[in-house]
Write a structure and sequence with these properties.
CATH topology of the largest domain: Rossmann fold
Number of domains: 2
CATH superfamily of the largest domain: Translation initiation factor eif-2b, domain 2
Helix content: 25-40%
Distance between the termini: 30 Å
Family: Belongs to the eIF-2B alpha/beta/delta subunits family.
GO molecular function: S-methyl-5-thioribose-1-phosphate isomerase activity
InterPro entries: IF-2B-related, IF_2B-like_C, Initiation_fac_2B_a/b/d, M1Pi_N, NagB/RpiA_transferase-like
Keywords: Isomerase
Organism: candidate division MSBL1 archaeon SCGC-AAA382F02
């Protein structure tokens, strides 16, 4: 696999989120500005990190590293304070940041782990910021390692000449599966949905893939069933924000309806899981779906596209039942939904 420094900026998570020791800030690649410009969003405290997550400065696999660095900067804010002040600020930061993404398993897992690590470090009179900063870095590196494993496992499912449909931006593995396939002598093309209302597919997925010289075709969110019917798509592959114990897949809104079309036309749907099944989520019924500001549906990149007086509705995620899922790809391999737990 190509070295990390050669990966497109969106694919290399260490370039997406990090702590700048010189300016004492958490630095986040501002995905809202892509593809027109590559710019950084700087956060001086955990509240600014939380707002960055809420405002979609980062998304997909950039969220949990941002959360981790948010906890680290919370420690930095009180590094000269008492143990009580440290505990209080870490607790406030954890609660605030967890509320930014109720659906994303990896964020909650990491925050809980870092909260426990913080308590242990405080009790042992350790360097709280140094320990939490290191854990945030290690978590980001872990996600890169998992991404490569997912990319390799998924590439083994792909045949030479396949066209892959993807939805939203499913993290580095969406890019890496193509790289591994190419390394094995297989050429693949991608179709990307635009992914309303933030256009992650149009702005992010297509950007990363085009930087890798893949052939990319953009379609609107309403086109997948037609593409399946016309035989234009061989596999439907996305990321997953959460995997239920029964193999159901929680992901960006629209995934479920595309999976329905894929099933109807015999196109297999594979979901890439960076964290594996969530033991606290038995079925789709247990997924807490985030509902975002309806005004976001009525605008595209700050331009209003509908009458002011109408209503809008924006559940940010949906959940695809296991019967519509061909396989779950984890760092350990590919599993049928009923076998993933």
């Amino acid at each position: 696999m190509m070295p990390s420094e050669e990966l497109p900026v969106l694919v290399d998570l260490h370039k997406n989120v990090f702590f700048d020791n010189e300016t004492e800030e958490v630095v986040i690649l501002d995905r809202r500005k892509l593809p027109e410009e590559i710019t950084q969003y700087r956060c001086e405290n955990f509240e600014e990190v939380a707002k960055a997550i809420e405002q979609m400065v980062t998304q997909s696999l950039g969220v949990s590293p941002a959360a981790g660095y948010g906890i680290a900067i919370a420690a930095y804010e009180v590094q000269e304070g008492s143990k009580g002040k440290m505990r209080n600020n870490i607790s406030k930061a954890a609660k605030r940041i967890k509320n930014t993404r109720p659906t994303q398993t990896s964020l909650h897992y990491l925050i809980d782990e870092m909260t426990e690590l913080a308590e242990k470090t405080i009790s042992e009179n350790g360097n709280l910021f140094e320990v939490l900063h290191q854990r945030a870095y290690e978590w980001t590196e872990h996600l890169m390692t998992v991404s490569k494993k997912l990319g390799k496992h998924t590439s083994d499912l792909i045949n030479d000449g396949d066209t892959i449909l993807t939805h939203c931006y499913g993290g580095p593995a969406i890019y890496l599966m193509g790289e591994y396939a190419r390394k094995d002598g297989k050429e693949i093309d991608y179709f990307c949905t635009e992914t309303r209302p933030y256009l992650q597919g149009a702005r992010l997925t297509s950007f990363a893939l085009s930087q890798g010289d893949f052939d990319v075709t953009l379609v609107t969110d309403g086109m997948p069933a037609y593409c399946f019917k016309e035989g234009l798509i061989d596999k439907f592959i996305t990321g997953a924000d959460r995997i239920a114990m029964n193999g159901a897949v929680a992901n960006k809104i629209g995934t479920y309806q595309i999976a329905l079309g894929a099933k109807r036309h015999g196109v297999p749907f594979y979901a890439l899981s960076y964290t594996g099944p969530d033991s606290g989520t038995a079925t789709c019924e247990d997924v807490d779906v985030e509902e975002r500001d309806p005004q976001e549906v009525k605008h595209v990149r700050d331009a209003r596209i509908s009458p002011k007086e109408i209503n809008a509705f924006y559940p940010a995620f949906d959940c695809t039942p296991p019967e519509f899922v061909e396989g779950i790809v984890t760092d350990r391999g590919v599993y049928k939904p009923e076998k993933v737990s």
